[in-house]
Write a structure and sequence with these properties.
The chain has about 375 residues and is of the alpha/beta class. It has 12 helices and 15 strands. A 7-stranded mixed β-sheet has the order 2-10-9-8-5-3-4, with helices on both faces. A 3-stranded antiparallel β-sheet has the order 6-7-11. A 3-stranded antiparallel β-sheet has the order 12-15-14, with helices on one face.
């Protein structure tokens, strides 16, 4: 039985990525100068080229899941004036929580989950509290909606602020114009839209910002952006870095490039979404959506139909056995939306026929549960 992951956490990866661990196990590589430098150089260059910021930004790689890069960013990028964090989903709150735990002066602009932030309010808060940094999330995975980063970027430029964006769920899957949107630090990980394992994260950071950070120690020793950048620009890393994970990162990136880069990836996800969202509509399932917000390409948040309890539905799909050798893992909502919505993601390496079969399975499981 193949357990198809309809979650954004761990899912089937390209064969090219899986092959790395087989060959690497036969000859591991010591993470020092002559072996490490060319790999780091290639990766850091390819990442900024793919995001079309090779002239203005540099990539800094960390050993962690995505949240480590959030910690590195807030621990290193924020001056003593503090930060305004737009918190309209679980990850905006996580960013603000990290800041507060580090003792950073944090103004939290809290909204109902998925509600579009108001630009005038952001401007007023920045001026009132004299803040020079804005933090926000682009792809809000907890509600499957996209935040208006372009609009916030315009304001950020006008007020001469720095803009930090959690793009963990949107990089390599959504349109992001890092330069045009004035993003100073783009927080990314390797396991979501890139389809690699959750061992590495990275930030893509504006160069003069990195120069500033390199002058002072960051607030978290292990996740110090300036120090890590200084080491990586000369082909090193301050601590042990997992070369197998770096090679998987590169294999995933090469695979992404060979399959048409961003436009190829967006086409792949949109073909899946056409099947899935048409299916939801036919089944009478309503998408979670808020005025002025767009849906993410990686998945859909849906209202739980009356009488259906999430746990039972997830259980039925996880034990689905219809002779086609596939069962399905879906995702609950997070935080205050649990019990109200549930989420179905369309990430990873699965054929379109998997999503067609899933809709049939969902139909059958809902029929059984609906009263
Ligand atoms: C998944 C996710 C994270 C957290 O990443 P981890 O790999 O679980 O640490 C942060 N922000 C967003 C928007 C995400 O989707």
């Amino acid at each position: 039985m193949k357990r198809v992951s309809l979650t954004p956490a761990v899912f089937h990866l390209p064969e090219r990525v899986n092959q790395i661990s087989e060959t690497y196990g036969k000859q591991p590589i010591v993470p020092r100068g002559p072996a490490l430098k060319p790999i780091l150089d290639r990766l850091r260059k390819k990442v900024t080229e793919q995001l079309q910021v090779a002239e203005t930004h540099e990539a800094v790689i960390f050993t962690s899941s995505g949240s480590g890069a959030i910690a590195a960013a807030v621990g290193s990028c924020i001056d003593d004036q503090g930060i305004l964090v737009i918190a309209n989903d679980v990850y905006g709150h996580r960013q603000a929580d990290f800041c507060e735990q580090l003792g950073i002066r944090t103004i939290r602009y809290t909204l109902e989950p998925g509600t579009k932030p108001d630009i005038k309010t952001i401007e007023a808060l920045l001026i009132k509290h004299q803040l020079g940094t804005i933090g926000m999330v682009h792809g809000c995975t907890s509600v499957c909606l996209l935040n208006p980063v372009r609009e916030v970027g315009k304001l950020s430029r006008k007020l001469n602020c720095r803009l930090i964006v959690d793009a963990i769920a949107s990089v390599f899957v959504e349109d992001i114009d890092v330069r045009e949107w004035h993003i100073d630090c783009l927080i990314c990980s390797t396991n979501k839209g890139l389809h690699s394992n959750p061992d590495l994260s990275f930030c893509v950071v504006e160069k003069s910002y990195l120069e500033e950070m390199a002058k002072h120690p960051g607030r978290i020793p292990y996740f110090d952006m300036g120090k890590t950048w200084m080491a990586q620009r000369t082909g090193g890393h301050p601590y042990t870095i997992n070369i197998r994970a770096l090679l998987e990162f590169e294999a995933a990136l090469d695979d992404y490039i060979d399959r048409g880069s961003l436009s190829g990836r967006m086409r792949m996800y949109r073909d899946r979404l056409r099947i899935l969202r048409n299916g939801y509509q036919k089944l009478g399932l309503k998408s979670f959506l808020k005025e002025g917000m767009e849906q993410q390409n990686i998945g859909t948040a849906l209202f739980l139909p009356a009488g259906v309890d999430y746990e039972s539905l997830a259980e039925d799909l996880a034990h689905w056995d219809n002779g086609d050798k596939e069962c399905y893992e879906i995702y609950s909502a997070q935080g205050e939306l649990s019990g109200v919505v549930f989420r179905i993601f369309n990430m990873g390496e699965y054929p379109l026929s998997t999503y067609e079969r899933f809709i049939l399975a969902l139909e059958s499981c809902l029929k059984k549960r609906r009263v």
